[in-house]
Structure formats: C-alpha cells, structure tokens
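Hi team,

Below is the intake form for asparagine synthase (glutamine-hydrolyzing) from Goodfellowiella coeruleoviolacea. Please confirm the fields before the structure is written into the shared record.

FORM ID: S-0412
PROTEIN: asparagine synthase (glutamine-hydrolyzing)
ORGANISM: Goodfellowiella coeruleoviolacea
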Amino acid sequence: MHMAVSEYASDRSGPWFAALPDVPAGPGVAARLGPPESLTVITHPSGRPMLVGQWAADTVTVAEAGHVKVVVLGRVSITTTELARRTERLRDVTDLSAVTSGMAGSYHLIASVHGRLRVQGTASGVRRVFYAHDAGTTVAADRSDVLARLTGAGINERYLPLWLLASIPEPLADLCPWRRVEAVPPGRYLLVDVHGQTRTPRWWSPPDPDLDLLEGVPAVTAALANAVAARTRTGGTISTDLSGGLSSTSIYFLASRGPAQLVALTHKGPDNGGEDVVWARRAAAALPPAEHLVLTRDVAHMFAGLVEASSHLDEPSHGVREYRFWSGFARHLMARGSRLHLIGAGGDQVCRGLPAYLHDVLRERPGTALNHLRGYLALTRWTLSGTAVALATRRGYAQWLARQPLTAPPLVIGRTEPELGWEITPHLPPWATPQAVYAVRDLVAELAGGAEPLAPSRGQHAALHRIRQDGRLTRHLSTVLERVGLPVEAPFFDDQVISACLAVRTDQRGTPFQCKPLLKQAMRGIVPEASLSRETKDSFTADGYAGLRQNREELARLLDQSLLADRGLVDLKGLRRTCFSAVYLGLSLPALGRTLGVESWLDSHVRLPRPGVADQPDPVDTRSPTPEGARP
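The structure came back. Fields below:
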C-alpha cells in the first residue's frame, strides 16, 4: 500500500497551529509546514516564527512587551488591551496565572518569555498539545497528524488496540497513534527552554470536593455564565442545541442574555417519538429565539461516510458514526447565518458524580452512602451481592488497573454488576483477538505499576476521567464540523466551569434521587422552573441500529478489506456476525462504533490519497518500541 504525501506537513483547510521555539532552525521548519500564502505567522519578539498555521481572525488575541509575547487562541473574555496590560507584568513563563486569572472561554495559551516557550491546552482535553522533534528542535502543535507529517512518522500499530477498549485507562489515554509524536497530558503544559530541553509541568489540578452544594452554586453559576458570554460577546448570529435537557437548555438561556442573535436547534427521531421536542418547544416558548429549527435525524446518516469523516481526525474516534448527520445540521445552521454553534456536551460530566463516589462517602458519611445505595439498587439491576463485593474492594488505582481482565463479558458489566471502580471497566469487544488482548495487557503491565490517579478520591478521579474521555469526543466533533465551516464549542468543558463544579462534594453532584441537582440550583432564576423539572433523557439507540442496516453495503466494503483483521487484531467472522445481525444484543452498538471508528481511521490514513507530489512508502510502521510518550 502507498499513500501520496504532501510536500507540506499540513494540507488541511480547517484551523490548526504549530508552535516553534525561538531558535535558528525555526524558519526552516516553518517553511515546511505549508505554502506561505495559506499560512498565518506570529513571530517571537526576535522576529523568528513562533506560531504558524490557520485560524479564524476572531479567535486570536496577541500582546507583546519587550522580550515577552503572549498569544491566546480561542474565543475568550479578555480583550487585546487587557491582555497587553497583563503581559507587561509577565516575567516568568512558568507563572502565567496573572495572565489567565478570570479569563473565561476555551483556549490554547502560547507564550514566549525571554526565549522560553510555553504551549498549553485545556484541562478537559478539548484543546490538546502534542510535540515532536524535527531539525534538531522541538515543535508543538494542536494536532498530532501535523507533527507526524512534518517528521515523517508512521502509525504506531502497537497502540491501535487501545481504541477498541470501552474506556481507555488514564495512563494509556495519552499515548499517541503516531510514532515519535508525544501528547502533553491535559492539565500540563509543554515548556521548551533556551537550550531546547522540554518538560511538561502541571498547571492545573482538580480541586478538593469539599463544598456543600449550596456553597458551590454561586461559583458554578458565574463560571458557566461567563463561559457562554465569552462566545456571545461579539454579537452576530450563533446557534445552540436545545434538546430540552438540562444542559442544552441552560446554555440556550445563558446565550440569550448576550448580544448575539440566537438560532435554536432541536433534532428528533424519524418516528417522532421521545420527549425532546416537547421539552424544547416549552423552553423556546418561554424565551423565543430568532428561529427554532426542529430537524429530523436521517437514520441513513448513522454509520455513513465513516472513512471520509475519519480522514479529518488525528486519532480514531467512535463519534464518526454520527458525523454525517451532524454535518447536515451544520449546513442548515450556516444557512441561517450562524457563526458558531454551542452544545451542551459536558453537562453530565461536570455536574453529575459517578457512582464510584460511594467508596469515598461510605468511609466519610456512611449514612449518606447507604441511603444513596438503596436508591441505586432500586433504579438499576445491580445485585446486592455484586454491590457488596464492589464496595468491599479497596484497591488503589495502580492495583485496580493491573487486575483488569480486558475480556470480561460486556453483557454482564453495567447490568447486574455495578461500575464502582476507578474508571469504566476497560473491556475489549468479543471479536478482539488474543493478539489484541495481549497487546493491551502488555501496555497495561508496563504502565500500571507507576500509575497514579487523577485525584486522591475514587469519585473525583472517575469524574475527571470521564470529563477527559468525553472532552476528547467534543474535540473530534469540532474538528469535523470546522471542516464544514461551523465551529462548535462546549462551554461546560471550560477550565473555570470544571473547577467550579468539581469543588462540590461528589455525593451532592451525583445522587440517584435527582438529575443534576448542582446544575438545577445554579440555573434557578435563569432557566424557567418548568424546564428545570425534567428528569428524563431521550435515547437514540434505535437510530444507530437502523443506520447499521441502511449502510450495510458501505460497511461490508469496509470490512471486506479490513486492516484490523489483516493485522490480527479482530476476528472478522465474529465482527461481521455482530455488525450484520438481524438482532443486536446489549452493548453491541457502542462496541461496534469503537471498532468501526478504528477501522475507518486506519483505512483513511493508509488508503486514501492526499494532495502531494510523490508516492511514499506505506506510513504504517510495524515495529514495537518502548512507549516513550507514556506517563501516568
């Protein structure tokens, strides 16, 4: 197999950037990143290239003072004047708290201070930072594939089975599918000193969840309101999801307070079932938008165009199964003039605690724990014996990770046995081969011994892990829709919102007795009481199954030339049987989505031709090195 490769590191039309240290090699590296006429360049105070790429004019704020330059890429609350004032006081690149204090929005922060370079993403992982070494220097980027193309790095096949897992364990979540490209873990930043040495210091840690709900509510209200205002402050027309659920409805009402004109989007199933439309219309009636679009999801768009969508991503994503209909929605919104679309993603993740918090509360407040436990037993299929065993297990994170079976039956997990571990059980699908199982076990064995949790308590770690997992999906969706022309942002995933929410006690964020009590309290007086009373959520699972049936021929062609099967990672017969079965069981749909996401990504990056001038050897490298990018 051969793939045509561009002479440049990026031939993308969507936004991206690469950050370069202030070194003599910088201009040469910058010249290989893309044709000069297509790039925007921001220089260091020395005049050498600091930031190279493509981005919208309304997403960059720059300030310079002497030997200091600060660039903020993203829609934020700070003005150029205020950033300049703060930059004048900056003396040390390792301390940018004076620059970022109170700054709302989602952004990359790039700073050059007396020859030292800092590149920082977000705590959620919605905005990532990667780095690689080229021409004797370190290059950072917000996309790993830009660096892979710059350095000629191939796909690291050893890591591919990780994306088949139901949940990638935290120590493995920052392994990059490209050889010689490393990821900076969320909550850390890349620091390149004047000698070219790199470090990844921590800039963010989750707060201790000590606040009672009512104590934490004012900070949550302010953080979320400021996050939305950072997107609406420049006016124009923006659009928001309005499913009628608590998260999207909160974003809608907060956005209505700003100067932007609103277009609301509600999507429904083809059978008109579900409650979303009823709740959305109720919310819109209380505060009418400029236009309320109610669009029907075309089930034929589920699981369609997987390879094309995957070609825009720098790693596999199970979200690609939905990107065809999201692209269609985006075009409808753009036709109404929307410059930006806000979604409620992240609301569940930051405003609800996962049941893993029961471990912590059982020690600290046993009465509360038992009360909540009775609620969960009444609402779920958990068995009393299985729950007792799960709560009695007191393993630390490293021990828990080392004991994961990986092949536990997915139809049992999550139905009769509670998910009370540090993370969602990272099981592989039934069609994963022994080779895939051994590959993941080897990686777990290498990293589990030194693995440390994201937070001391199990409930807080589980919440943050979920935030990062779903922040990753939001990043993927944003990448695809940026290609269509409509930026997508999720204010719940902003750093300040996450910090405010995670400061509240886990047993008061999560409870079996009420849906998102923290968000309900934070939105009182902003969202009508009628909308705050919703306790249900529509399911679109049937649409996914219908999409599998309608796209059978496309999926059959993809599996006929399965690269995962060629590499011995999936049992093609078992995968086909599940994919094309007349009856779908249990967790088949998400497992299929993950597997087809990996298959289509691998296919798109190995088979699809790209603009270029010469054929190069197959970029897939089959060697199995020590995972240099691994870190707990």
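SUMMARY LINE: The CA atoms of residues 359 and 397 lie 13 Å apart.

Thanks, M.
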